[in-house]
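Narrative of activities, Objective 1.

The group set out to show that a structural description can be obtained from nothing but a protein's sequence at a throughput compatible with the screening campaign. Below is one input-output pair from the validation batch, recorded exactly as produced.
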Amino acid sequence: MARPVTEVVTIPLQVGADIENPNAVAGRIISDTLNTVTQQEGYQRAYYGRQVENPSILQIYADWDSIDAHKKFTNQSYYGPFAKHLLSVVDGGMEIFHVNFSPHPPAAALSGTTAVTEVVGHYFSTDLSESDKSSFERNLMEFVKVLEQKAAGFTGFAGGWVIEELEHKEVEGKTKVWQSCIGWQSVEAHMAFRETQDFKDNVHLMRPEFKKATTMHHVACKEA
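Output recorded for this entry:
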């Protein structure tokens, strides 16, 4: 049985793109984009929003029945005009990859009671051993237990391996990546937890010695 996936799209918007205004050009284009995606066979749901630290970056998370369902959409005759329409509000190159999140769907970490999502990218060598991979997953889930039990304002977690190999500016060549989405009631709640002893005593669980690089930002999503 095919495994469901989440398409993750990072879109650098043109200066002044008013995507929140349905009457603005950019707002209509993003609305058209999401409406087209939601009509595709194999589509499940989507969440989208701007990055908090860099509001000129829009992120879209789209859940699909399988990676083949998404690829079928990209092979349709109307995909070219669809992509061209979206690119009219883009400033620079978009990044698109797929994640096998667990749990799927990652809704609890991206919507509902979650006001903001901490998005963490964990970058490893492409030849990461199965034992190191398992060790990382096991320790990360121990950290999630700490969040569930001790972190005020924590609302949900989803994490998984990225299917594609990705690049990172601080790492030579391609990398194997795990993405964590950690839901919070606010950025302030996340920052407050980072000052607690519970965080300081357990953060090593997310920082194995064999990790090559880490990225972190917040995104405020809503369901499409």
